[in-house]
C-alpha cells in the first residue's frame, strides 16, 4: 500500500523515469543499460557523500565540509602513496581521518550548542586549507592498486559493465538503508530530526546520535574521497569544490526535508541519478555548456522545496482537522 | 496507608535560577498505589519540581530517595532507568515517527541489532488496546492523530517503561471530557496495580475526583501535604493563592452590569466559512460586548477565531470590521484594531529569548513601523506600567520571558495586545494551563476592559468561565455554530445541551 509519507520519493522516482524517457526519445543511443550504469559510474562518489549527508539532514543538521574533506582525502592519499605507503594502509587511514574529523565537528555542534552550519563551514575552510598546506600542486597517483581499481571493469550480462567504485557505492547504499530503517542509531536520527527536545526527554542518547551522524558523514566524505581518487587518479586542493552543494541538492531532490526528521536514503539515490541524467542529456546535446546542468538543478531545487512546503502544509492541515 | 513506606521521597529541595528562587525547601512524598496531586499557582514551582525529579534540572540542595535509597538523577535517562516516567504538558514525542515507534523507541525489539518492525507494531497495538482501550493504526506517523490521542500514546510509552513512578504533568489540559474519563480509568487501574502516580493539574474537580493526597506549593515553598478527603476545596484554593477569596467571589456580580444591547457593531461575519474548518456562520460583536465561544475540543472554536482574524482565508461569506469593507489578512485585521491572542502561546505568541519588556512592545513597534523605534526609556515605562497593572511576576522588565511561568507569560501576551489599544480582542484559551488565582485575574481584567468599551471574543474549554465573563455565548458543535444565547438564557445546562446536541440543530 502506498502511504502518503512516501509521496515525495514517488515524485522523485517518477521524475527520473520521465527525464530518462524524454532523453531516450530525443537522442539516439541514449536508451541503453550502459547509459543508465554510467550514471552510477560517474556519480559513485557523489552518491556516497550524499548518503552521509542524508543522515545529517534527517537529523536536522547540515554538513558543508564534505567537498573539502574529499579534496583533503585525495591530497593525503596522493602524498602518502607518492612517499611509497601501501594502499592497504593509506585507505583505512584516510577513512579514519574523515570519521574523526566528522565526529569532532559533531561534538562541537552538540556540546557547545553551535549551529551546524557554522561549525561545518569552519570545517570546510579548515580541510580545504590543509590541502594547500600539503601542496598547492596536483599530485598524480601512479600506485598500481589505484590504477588497477580505476581501470577494472566489472562485466555485467548484456555486455555492460560497472566500475569497482559503483560496487562500493551500492554497498554503502545498502548499509545506509539498513542503518536508517533497521537500527536504533537510524531511528534515533529520525527522532532527533523530529524533535530534539522530545528525544532528550524520551531518554534517547542524543549526544551519541548527533556525534555519530556527523562521524558517519565524515566517513562517507572520506570514502567518497577515496572513490574520487580512483576516478581522478590525482590529489589536488581544488578537487570537488562545491560538491557539498551537489550533495545537499541530491538529498533535497530525493525528498528529504531540510528541516529534518523526514527523508529516505533511497530518495537520495534517485536525487543523485536525476543530477546525473541531466548532465548526460546536456552532454548528448553537445552544443550546450555544462553550466546548464547547474541551471536545471537550480530550477529542480526550487520546484522540490516548493513541493516540500506544500506537502508539509497539507500535513499540518490534516492534523488540525483531525 | 500512612504506615507504609513512601516509594519516593524528596527532602529539602532547593533550586535557584538567575533572579528567581524556584524552589526553596520543598518536601514531597509519594506512596505506591496512590494518586498524589501537586497543586500550586503558576510559578509556585510545580514544573520545576518535576523537572528536578526527571533530571532536566540539577538540584542545588536537598536529596531524592527512591525506595529508601538516595539517587542522583542527572539526566532524563537516569530518571527513566530508575523507574520514573513522565508525561509532560506538551506532548513530548516525535511527530514524524510512527505511533508504535514513539512508544518503543530506545527499547525496540531487536535481533542481532536489527529492529523487528512486525513485532514492534504488534506489541504497540496490543499495548494501546489493552491498557488504553485505543485501537488505531500504529504504523501511521504520530502527527496524523489529534493531540488527545498523542497524549494517550505518551502515557502508553511511560507505562511501558516498567515505571514505578508515573508523573503526569497537566495531562488533561488538552483533552475533552470523554478523553479525561478514559485517562482516569487508566489511572485508577494503574493505581490498583500499585503504581505511584504524581498528578499535576489546574482542574480542581479532577483533583478531587482522582487524588488520594495533595501537596501544595506556593512561591517555591512547601505549604503542606493533605489527604484529599480532609481538605475542603475552598481551603485548598486559599492555601494555593495564600489570600482570601474575595477576588473570586466578587466576579459573578460584575457580569450583570455589562451587556449593552444598542452599541455599534464592531465586527460582523455573514455566512463566513472555510471548507474543512468551519461551516458558514453568522456572528456579530458589538462595542463593549464580551462574546463567548463554547464547544468541545475540536468543535471549531479556534478555526472560527482564525477566520475572524483573517489568519485563515475564508472560502465563502463576508467579514466586515467597523465600517470598512471585507477583511482578508491578519494585517488588515490588525489595522482595523483587532488583536488575536493565540491558544498556542509557545508556538505563536511569546518569543522565548526576549525580555518581558521586548515582548510587550513588540506589537506596538510593529504597528508603528520598524523605523520609528520606541526609546528604551519609553519601553521600560510601558513595561513597568503593565507589570503593575497585570501583576506580572517577577516584576522585572528585563527578565527573559522563558523564565516565567505559563500564567505570567500569558499576561505578557495580553499586555502586548492591550498596548495597541484594540477595538476587539480575540482571546483563544487565555487561561489554559493557568492556576486559579491568575485565572480570576485575567477574567476580571477582561471584564474591566469591556466596561471601558473594548469588545472581546472569549474562547475557553471551561464552560463555567465562559458563562461567567460573557454577555452572549455562541455554541459550536462539530464545526458548526449551533446556538447563540444571551442574558437569562445562558445557563450551564442549556449550553451543555447545545454542545451535546439533544435533538435540535
From TrEMBL, chain A:
Which species is the source of this protein?
Paenibacillus nanensis
**Top-level taxonomic group:** Bacteria
Which Gene Ontology CC terms are recorded?
Answer: plasma membrane
Record key words, sorted: Cell membrane, Membrane, Transmembrane, Transmembrane helix
Q: Report if keyword Transport is assigned.
A: no
Name by which UniProt lists this protein: Sugar ABC transporter permease YjfF
Give the molecular function GO annotations: transmembrane transporter activity
The gene name reads yjfF
Identify its membrane topology class: Multi-pass membrane protein
Taxon lineage: Bacteria, Bacillati, Bacillota, Bacilli, Bacillales
Q: Which InterPro entries match?
A: ABC_transp_permease (IPR001851)
State which residue ranges cross the membrane.
6-23, 35-58, 88-111, 117-135, 156-180, 211-233, 245-271, 291-311
The record's subcellular location field reads: Cell membrane
- What NCBIfam families would the database entry show? PRK11618.1 (NF008630)
Automatic annotation (TrEMBL), chain B:
Q: What CDD domains would the database entry show?
A: ABC_Carb_Monos_I, ABC_Carb_Monos_II
User: What compartments host this protein?
Assistant: Cell membrane
What membrane topology was assigned to this protein in its record?
A: Peripheral membrane protein
The primary location reported for this protein is membrane
Keyword terms of this UniProt record: ATP-binding, Cell membrane, Membrane, Nucleotide-binding, Repeat, Translocase, Transport
Q: What is the protein name stated in its UniProt record?
A: Sugar ABC transporter ATP-binding protein
* Gene Ontology cellular component terms for the protein in this record: plasma membrane
**PANTHER family, alphabetized:** CARBOHYDRATE TRANSPORT ATP-BINDING PROTEIN MG119-RELATED (PTHR43790), GALACTOFURANOSE TRANSPORTER ATP-BINDING PROTEIN YTFR (PTHR43790:SF9)
Amino acid at each position: 500500500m502506498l502511504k502518503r509519507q512516501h509521496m515525495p520519493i514517488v515524485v522523485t522516482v517518477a521524475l527520473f523515469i520521465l527525464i530518462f524517457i524524454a532523453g531516450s526519445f530525443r537522442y539516439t543511443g541514449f536508451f541503453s543499460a550502459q547509459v543508465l550504469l554510467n550514471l552510477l559510474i560517474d556519480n559513485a562518489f557523489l552518491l556516497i557523500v550524499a548518503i552521509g549527508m542524508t543522515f545529517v539532514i534527517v537529523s536536522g543538521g547540515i554538513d558543508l565540509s564534505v567537498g573539502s574533506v574529499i579534496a583533503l582525502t585525495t591530497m593525503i592519499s596522493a602524498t602518502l602513496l607518492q612517499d611509497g605507503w601501501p594502499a592497504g594502509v593509506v585507505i583505512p587511514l584516510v577513512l579514519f581521518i574523515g570519521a574523526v574529523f566528522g565526529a569532532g565537528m559533531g561534538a562541537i555542534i552538540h556540546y557547545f550548542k553551535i549551529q551546524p552550519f557554522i561549525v561545518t563551514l569552519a570545517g570546510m575552510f579548515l580541510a580545504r586549507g590543509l590541502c594547500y598546506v600539503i601542496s598547492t600542486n596536483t599530485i598524480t597517483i601512479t600506485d598500481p592498486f589505484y590504477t588497477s581499481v580505476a581501470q577494472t571493469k566489472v562485466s555485467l550480462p548484456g555486455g555492460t559493465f560497472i566500475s569497482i567504485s559503483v560496487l562500493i557505492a551500492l554497498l554503502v547504499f545498502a548499509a545506509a538503508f539498513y542503518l536508517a530503517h533497521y537500527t536504533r542509531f537510524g531511528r534515533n536520527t529520525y527522532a532527533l530530526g523530529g524533535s530534539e527536545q522530545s528525544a532528550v526527554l524520551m531518554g534517547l542518547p542524543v549526544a551519541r546520535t548527533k556525534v555519530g551522524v556527523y562521524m558517519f558523514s565524515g566517513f562517507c566524505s572520506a570514502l567518497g574521497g577515496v572513490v574520487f581518487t580512483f576516478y581522478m587518479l590525482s590529489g589536488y586542493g581544488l578537487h570537488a569544490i562545491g560538491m557539498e552543494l551537489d550533495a545537499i541538492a541530491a538529498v533535497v531532490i530525493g525528498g528529504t526535508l531540510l528541516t529534518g526528521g523526514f527523508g529516505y536514503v533511497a530518495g537520495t539515490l534517485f536525487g543523485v541519478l536525476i543530477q546525473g541524467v541531466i548532465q548526460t542529456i546536456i552532454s548528448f546535446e553537445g552544443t550546450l555548456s555544462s553550466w546548464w546542468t547547474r541551471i536545471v538543478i537550480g530550477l529542480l531545487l526550487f520546484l522540490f522545496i516548493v513541493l516540500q512546503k506544500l506537502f508539509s502544509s497539507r500535513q499540518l492541515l490534516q492534523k488540525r482537522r483531525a | 496507608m500512612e504506615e507504609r513506606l513512601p516509594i519516593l521521597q524528596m527532602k529539602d529541595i532547593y533550586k535557584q535560577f538567575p533572579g528567581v528562587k524556584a524552589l526553596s525547601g520543598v518536601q514531597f512524598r509519594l506512596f505506591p498505589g496512590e494518586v498524589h496531586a501537586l497543586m500550586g499557582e503558576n510559578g509556585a514551582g510545580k514544573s520545576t519540581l518535576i523537572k528536578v525529579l526527571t533530571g532536566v534540572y540539577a538540584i542545588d540542595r536537598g536529596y531524592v530517595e527512591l525506595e529508601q535509597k538516595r539517587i542522583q538523577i542527572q539526566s532524563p535517562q537516569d530518571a527513566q532507568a530508575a523507574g520514573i516516567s513522565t508525561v509532560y504538558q506538551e506532548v513530548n514525542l516525535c511527530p514524524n515517527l510512527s505511533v508504535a515507534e514513539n512508544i518503543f523507541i530506545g527499547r525496540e525489539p531487536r535481533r542481532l541489532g536489527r529492529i523487528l518492525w512486525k513485532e514492534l507494531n504488534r506489541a504497540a497495538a496490543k499495548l494501546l488496546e489493552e491498557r488504553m482501550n485505543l485501537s488505531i493504526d500504529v504504523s501511521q506517523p504520530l502527527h496524523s492523530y489529534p493531540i488527545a490521542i498523542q497524549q494517550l500514546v505518551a502515557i502508553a510509552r511511560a507505562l511501558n517503561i516498567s515505571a514505578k513512578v508515573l508523573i503526569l504533568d497537566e495531562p488533561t489540559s488538552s483533552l475533552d471530557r470523554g478523553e479525561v474519563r478514559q485517562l482516569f480509568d487508566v489511572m485508577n487501574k494503574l493505581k490498583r496495580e500499585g503504581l505511584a502516580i504524581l498528578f499535576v493539574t489546574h482542574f480542581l474537580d479532577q483533583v478531587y475526583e482522582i487524588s488520594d493526597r495533595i501537596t501544595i506549593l506556593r512561591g517555591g515553598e512547601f505549604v503542606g501535604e493533605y489527604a484529599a478527603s480532609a481538605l475542603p476545596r475552598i481551603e485548598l484554593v486559599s492555601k494555593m493563592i495564600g489570600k482570601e477569596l474575595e477576588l473570586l467571589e466578587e466576579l459573578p456580580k460584575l457580569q450583570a452590569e455589562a451587556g449593552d444591547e444598542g452599541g455599534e457593531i464592531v465586527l460582523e461575519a455573514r455566512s463566513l466559512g472555510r471548507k474543512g474548518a468551519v461551516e458558514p456562520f453568522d456572528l456579530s460583536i458589538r462595542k463593549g460586548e464580551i462574546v463567548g465561544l463554547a464547544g468541545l475540543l475540536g468543535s471549531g472554536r479556534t478555526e472560527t477565531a482564525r477566520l475572524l482574524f483573517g489568519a485563515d482565508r475564508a472560502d465563502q461569506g463576508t467579514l466586515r470590521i467597523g465600517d470598512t469593507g471585507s477583511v482578508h489578512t491578519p494585517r488588515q485585521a490588525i489595522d482595523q484594531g483587532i488583536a488575536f491572542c493565540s491558544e498556542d502561546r509557545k508556538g505563536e505568541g511569546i518569543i522565548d529569548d526576549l525580555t518581558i519588556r521586548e515582548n510587550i512592545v513588540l506589537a506596538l513597534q510593529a504597528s508603528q513601523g520598524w523605523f520609528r523605534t520606541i526609546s528604551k526609556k519609553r519601553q521600560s515605562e510601558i513595561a513597568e506600567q503593565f507589570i503593575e497593572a497585570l501583576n506580572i511576576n517577577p516584576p522585572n522588565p528585563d527578565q527573559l520571558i522563558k523564565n516565567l511561568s505559563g500564567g505570567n507569560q500569558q499576561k505578557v501576551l495580553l499586555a502586548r495586545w492591550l498596548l495597541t489599544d484594540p477595538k476587539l480582542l480575540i482571546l483563544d484559551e487565555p487561561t489554559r494551563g493557568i492556576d486559579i488565582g491568575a485565572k480570576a485575574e485575567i477574567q476580571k481584567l477582561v471584564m474591566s476592559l469591556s466596561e471601558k468599551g473594548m469588545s472581546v471574543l472569549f474562547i475557553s474549554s471551561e464552560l463555567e468561565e465562559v458563562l461567567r465573563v460573557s454577555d452572549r455565548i455562541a455554541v459550536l458543535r462539530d464545526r458548526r455554530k449551533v446556538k447563540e444565547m444571551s442574558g437569562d438564557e445562558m445557563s450551564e445546562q442549556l449550553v451543555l445541551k447545545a454542545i451535546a446536541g439533544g435533538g435540535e440543530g
